Amino acid sequence: MSHKVLLVEDDRAIATVITEALRDEGFALDHCTSIARRDALLAQDSFDVMLTDIMLEDGDGLDGIASVHAAAPDMPVIVLSAQNTLDTAVRASDSEAFEYFPKPFDLDELTQAVKQAVARSPRLSAEDEAGEGGDLPLIGRSRAMQDVYRMITRVLRNDLTVLVTGESGTGKELVAEAIHQLGSRRTGPFVAVNMAAIPHDLLESELFGHERGAFTGAHSQAIGKFEQANGGTLFLDEIGDMPAEAQTRLLRALQSGRIRRVGGRQEIAVDVRIVAATNRDLAPMIADGRFREDLYYRLNVVPIHLPSLRERREDIGALTRHFLGQARDEGLPLNRVDDAAVSALSAQEWRGNVRELRNVVFRLALMARDGLIDAELVADILPLGRADQDASQGSAIEAALDEWLAASRPSTGTVYREALAVFEKPLIEHALRETQGNQLRAAQLLGINRNTLRKKLGELEIRPEEFVRRG
Rounded distance, CA 454 to CA 439, Å? Predict the structure, then answer.
């Protein structure tokens, strides 16, 4: 006997494609385009699985979904949507959807999901519901971000440990905040600790706390991050920067669910969800003994990879408008951005990712005239302009640096100082050449304070007027 599928989809082309694919796999399909017809079909017949779009001709396809589950508790629901935001993914998760597919979707993946849905055991209701979403921190409707949203929704009703990877500035802490805010631990504390920002000799005390007299300067008992996060979520950022001894203690805490303050004898039970993050490739660190392999596997239960901004350029317009709203909240003028400016911004390399874009948008908001950010202003702020120019510039600098390292072979501990002495002056001269001697724009290009640039000009005996192009 064929499994019966109810397809609720008002896009005729998509409905036709899905219908043909599922019928080829032996499924029997009923198709409708509205909530009213959906409810009528469910009242008169039973189905093994339902596929539903969200935006239907007579309303929101998730409206009344609770009554659908009540009437047919064993029927899995697969949600389809072109409204590809984290809020949509969370709403699908809140509706107890078996799976969520953002459009456009892979038809083979959808077919496989339908097969899994009809073969599953009777559906169990979740014990609690995630929050309604509120001010969700992640922005973007690109395919790459859809994968992130789907992974987030899969960990909201469990306490599995999550490892978030991605370049600096991609928003790894925002993923951790979303998991906390939308999950079952949202009423507990969210505690974040950056491993790279804490001196190694203080890291264990920071994580696990210490007793009075545990070491010089420990004049009183201190509660560590694990205890502070009890009942909530502990976000361990830059996990790859942990020293070996702290890694061992962290592994023990994760395995046992208990910690011991530095200098203490009593073991303390802690109930925390761990979300860790790193911008480093941990594999070579494991290979050369700098990161424990057993700790990696303990942390990497659910991996979530955040794409770089270069991998989701289609989100730059939405991110820019979002950051303009934040700039207004900070007291900067209310501005709008035109399509040409968005195109110019999208052409950048954004090695600093979303964090860099936010800073640039705030700068644009400050310097915009007549309430408009246009391509000309973007070119003034980002004079290199095009991604290929920026990439070639970066490649040239990297090649020069490699050549210098090979030729000079600086000793350990002196590389930074010696490289700075060699490259600082030509780098500043390059910035002045690109900006025709404009010190403000040169400082912006270099990412340093204008006063710092003026000081460097004096120290390095650079005359900015020599870079002004004469008519």
Answer: 8
Q: Are strands 49-53 and 77-81 parallel, antiparallel or unpaired?
A: parallel
| Domain edges within the chain | 4-119, 155-305, 309-381, 400-467
The pLDDT tens digits of the residues spanning 30-54 come to 999 999 899 889 888 888 899 999 8
- The Cα–Cα gap between 368 and 315 comes to 22
Q: E-assigned strands of 416-469? A: none
Distance of CA 10 to the CA centre of its chain: 32
> How many Å apart are CA 75 and CA 61, to the nearest integer?
16
Query: Under 8 Å CB-to-CB from 242, ≥6 apart: which residues?
Result: 195, 203, 250, 291
- Is the pTM here over 0.90, yes or no? no
- Tens digits of residue pLDDT in 166-225: 999 999 999 999 999 888 898 999 999 999 888 888 888 889 988 887 777 777 888 889
SS3 439: helix
Order of strands across the sheet that contains 302-305: 190-194, 233-237, 273-278, 162-165, 302-305
What is the Cα–Cα distance from 321 to 318, expressed in whole angstroms?
5
How is domain 400-467 classified at the architecture level of CATH? Orthogonal Bundle (1.10)
